[in-house]
Structures are given as structure tokens and as C-alpha cells.
Amino acid sequence: MKIFVTGATGFIGTAVVAELLNRGHQVIGLARSDRSEEKLRNMGANVLRGSLEDLDVLAAGAKESDGVIHLAFTNNFNDFEGAVKLDVAAITAMNEALIGSNKPFVNTSGTLMAANLGHIADENTPSNDPMGRAVSTQKSLSYSNQGVRATAVRLSPTVHDETRQGFGTILSGIAALNKKAAYIGEGNNVWPSVHKLDAAKLFVDALEKGQAGSTYNAVAEEGISLKAIATKIGSLLEVPVVSLKAEDAVPYAGPFFGNALQIDNPTSSVLTKKELGWNPTHPTLLDDLSTFLSDSANVALLIEQMKQSQN
Prior knowledge:
There is one protein chain. This protein is of the alpha/beta class. It has helices at residues 11-22, 34-43, 55-63, 80-98, 134-142, 167-178, 196-209, 226-237, 249-260, 270-276, 285-293, 296-310; strands at residues 2-6, 26-31, 46-49, 67-70, 104-110, 149-155, 158-160, 181-184, 190-195, 215-218, 221-225, 241-244. Helix content is 45%, strand content 19%. A 7-stranded parallel sheet has the order 3-2-1-4-5-6-10, with helices on both faces. Helix 8 runs parallel beside helix 11. The longest helix is centred in the first third of the chain and has 19 residues, at 80-98. The termini are far apart. The mean pLDDT is 94.
């Protein structure tokens, strides 16, 4: 099949493109720049120039393809509402072009949208949206009633490999800047995790075999405590590991991640594995954190990036 991929040159997108090509699919990747276009062509993909703002381009890419994997998101935490509105507009443009085709559309969602429940969330758990893109997900899945094989993949907050660990990397940077690694209260709240390559396989599995209207959880580890994550970061950075009160979370980590530190998000992928035959096999989050933070050059670059993000 010829698959249109947004976010094709991103951290997860490059792995998804490689997985698609390895399975014999053709790829059309959305590229905003010459650099992105070159990267895609070097991987063996075709290119469609444009961005999430170019709704006509997105619609054309969807219409000309046999299916879509939508990964792009601006990740603008300073205007998260605006980022979600842009995402909804992009999803609408692509799905309107697919109505009645029965072509697959795989949207990107997050496990944090079903959090703080007091129990383990699964694929059928509705979103309570404490931190996420529920509106985007609902919009994309609504097209399953209009002749689109629409599905959603909920990503763990810590999608990782040896070079990046999602929210885990950001917490490492926060710890390095503050010269302490912190968790809130007893630190018993948990985050799920998944390796980037396992997540990429799931996106393609959902494209090939996913059932219309279904949500799949990209979760290899159901829950790692924030205390365990902070302890690992502290030991590798050689900084103290401390417990903070809830009111100290935002001063320590900022508004977005101060709240994220307190989220409890145990999540199961049992139904995903059963329905799609998905079997994660790659290293754990703490393994990849160890590899990443054991390199002093990575730590120095991380601190510099965190400083720049605060300016």
C-alpha cells in the first residue's frame, strides 16, 4: 500500500517509516523543509511538501494514498489549546478526503488521557483527559461511522530508546537543572512506557489489521513508579533524590510537567496484544535511561536544551 505519514521525520515517525518500508509499503512523508525532504528520500520514501497548517495539502496526501498514519503534533506546551485546535483541523481535512473509502486512518493519542482512575486503564477505558488530546481522538474515531477505518494508538508518556526517553528525558533535564531528582509525596504514582521500535510496529499493525473505531495501547510496561524513575535519574546524575509536597511540584518542574509528575497512569495493553498479535521485545525505560545518562555529553546537551527552553 501507499501510506501517507505526517510527522514522518520525527522521533517516532522515522521508526514508523522504516517499519512500513520493511513490510513492503510505499511511503509518502510530509516534509516542512529541505532537510526533512532529504531525510525522507534517503530512507527511500517519497515526499509531499507542507505542514499541519496546509489543510489542502493534507487532504491531497490522504486522497492519493491507500491509508494514513498521523503522527505530527506541534508539542507547543505554551499554547496547548492552540496545538490541539490545529490537530483537529488537520485530522478533519484528511478524514474528509477519506470518507467512504474504507481506507485506514491511524491517529496518535496518549495513555495520559485515561489517568488518575484508581485502577488500570485498558483500551476500552474512555478518556477523562487530565492531560491530552481527547478532542483530536474523538474527532478521528468519529469517521469510523463514515466509511473510514479509523483507529487510534495511545502512546505512553515515555516512548524511549537509548537517545531519548520522552517525559523521562525531560525529567532528567529538570533534575539536572535543579540539582535534585524529585517525585511527589511517596512517588507511588506510575507511568507506562514503550520502546520506540515497539511503538512503530504497533502503528503499522493498526494500519494493516486494526478494526474501525478501535483504540490500541502502545504499552510495554504497565507502570513504573515516579519514585523509581527519579531514583534512577538521581543515581546516574549523582544528585539527591527527594520527595516534594504537591505545592512544590510546579516551582520544581513548571506548570505542565509539575502536573504530569503527579499523574497516576497504569495502563494495560492486553487487548492490543490479543487483537493485533503485538509483542514488544525491546529494552525497558530504565535500561534506556541508564544508557543515555551514562554519557556525559548527553547530559551536557540536555542541560543546554533545558536552559534554552526556559528563555
